[in-house]
Design goal:
five-stranded mixed sheet, five-stranded antiparallel sheet, 16 helices
Length: about 800
Amino acid sequence: MTTSRRLWFGRRSRDEESPRKRQRLNTENSPWENETDIGVTACAVSPQNIIAFACYGNLKHNMSTPTDQNMTVVVCDSNTPWDTHIVKSCAAQVTVLEWDQSGHYLLIGDTAGNAEIWTTLTHLLNEWTKVANISLPDEPIQAGTFFFNGKKTVFNCQNRESVSYLDKYTQIDMKPTIRGFGGRPLQGFLVVGMTGLVQAFVMGGTKGKTTNVEILGGIRLAYSYVDLAWTKDGEILAIACTGIPLDPIVYCKLTIQKDDGVEFSCLLDEYRLRSETLTGLFPLRSTASDMRVWGINFSSREDPSGIFLLVNGIGSGTLQYWELSEVERTIHSLFSTSAATSRYLQWQCMCVFNCNSRINSVCPSRNVWVSGSEAGAHSQHHLVITTTCGELLCLHRDSMKQVGLLSIADRSKCENKTVSSVCFTATGNALVAFDNSATMFICKLSPITDPGGPLTIPYALMSLEYCLITGIDYWDVLIGLRSTMLDSLCERLTDCFNQQSIGLQQLLQYRLLNIKLAIYRLGPSSSSKAGLQYGIIMLNSVYSALKSLLRPPPELFNQDRAPADSLTAVLSSKIPEVGTEVDKVLLHLEVKEFTVEPSTLITVQHLIQWTVTFILRLLNNLPDWRAATTTRGTMCDMLRDPKLLNMFRELLVIFRIWGLIRHSCLPTFSYMENVDVIATLFRILTRLLQTSEPDESLLDECCQLSSQLIIPDIELSLPARGIASPMLFNQLPLQYEYGIHPEETSLAKYDGVEGEGKVDSIRHVYLGSKPHNVRYCSRCKGISIIVKGLRVGRSAAAKSWDMRWQMSCPCRGMWSRQEVQ
């Protein structure tokens, strides 16, 4: 671990035991003596790098909660960890926090035996809704997991030199936990109680279905540590132990199947949970009172190869790795006439890591996506252990060698600091840790393929391509980059992307533009390069949204081509009669093919206005960009790309036709001369398309645009905010406080544009200086009005455009509702 970023608070600390010591059955009294103390009992990071953690006390000084509900589940984007939002509050201690594979559902389990599923139905990070729950009364929840969806992608190290994404990133043949109609995976979750009671909930329909209650391994014991994982067949593995030295470690397989009605206790269309006991183990064969099992975890969440076992003595600890291997044993001659052998499964300790202090917990990487360097080798990932003296030790999975060390006590400059909870980020390139005063530490980790080494461009490229293929968030990869790597990394990422098939490029183009946008926004002088990516994202979206409005009449309908293909054919063909005149293009088109209802056109006027204004801004700045020394990779490239130029021309022709249907849908400007904007822009763009480099007369015509009309000032990019911004390259560690935004003016919370007016970054309309009922992005300064709940009539076109950005901002940041001050 090379460095850390933390949220620091001046709170009083307490000398604590392991976090497991706080998991008590009596929930009436808080485990914290003072109401102002804070403690984190569990944490989890989603595939979208959203951090969820459960804590006692108030993180924000101005946050008021009921006095009888002192346990709070909080979420925040890892990019803006100071901006926290409450999911729920409860009196019982939260012991389990788990995200599903999509990052949309959050499982919360507590000591009262309640297991609940929460999600953001409105896709706002500060509005959560409970959608499912089950209860095991007086049974503290020890572990929980979601059903596996059967999707798993890994990087194949043997094909690292391959050009094709499909060769480098392979799909693992795995099955979902349970299938529904048509073989689609069903969503649901499973929880394990403290005494071994197991129950599952299958989501679907209006209410979902609860399975029967099963006993883990058929024996009810007071389990202190339980962990769950998935097999290749979608079954759920469970490993549990009491912590008592001579007690066995129970190893079970849990299956969920649709009941066929044979069982008398189950009705038709119900789901039955079954537990099958597998080969257990007795790790401690000594009766020494100073030895105790302190934790147990699977090596990975999907198809684990073994388990990690924590054993602590009086002043030291041991991390053991065990595997279930097939052993051959010779049968005695009394029981066999010949020298026969039998095979059986037996747990074997493969390697051991000794620590000079007691170990609190072990945290393997949840998402293991790098295969072994050789065929048959174990997957590569990091492993982190926490000690009682407040240290984080990073180990490599294969060699069990220490590759990083971070002392929480030294960083916080306070005694009696211990780590209470840790979790890896989406790709395992960063670690989130909490101490016993709720201080959050976000630590960069060394590359998985080169433990202890610096982050290199090939490894960063490999990680970003994995995010490109799977859709997992790439924020934890960005924070490890250096300022000198940005341009080279984007160039190599683009070169590799251009070597893929056309179909795959079309599928992944939006994700690629988002990744490049996020990388360029890290550089303080790369705003123009970031603006190029943002412009392409928005223009492609506007182009597809407006073309989807075209509904040709039945006599002109052709199943073999899209409605606007005739326009593309006319503009791409060199018809002498067309030339640079937009009106002559209409003579070669069937206008009925582009007819749209007048009531619909007025609802997309803001998109037409923004598109024409954007083209005006590009052409007006063309002389300045051409005179600059470095023009490649900037906004000027949009006027060099024939594909984008033809897209501009097609849109202008469509706007001309729609203006004949309803003139009020055309863009409006303050004119200083009588000029036809659409005709002028079409003529300039056509001349740019016909020449490799603009001549002086063309540049003069671009310069005259600002003297013919007033070009509105619009944002050509979305400036970054939070940690993944130019502030990333400041002196580390960066320190923040919950609820208090950084003092830098550039990180203002609601900055739609420079100045007093705010602009909707989705609809591109002015919202005023103090807008209400708006949402803001966690990764950029974009804001947008929340239409849901407003009594405003909208057309299907307007609803379609709003739904396009409902789940996330164009930069893939999460939305949050602006809180009323």
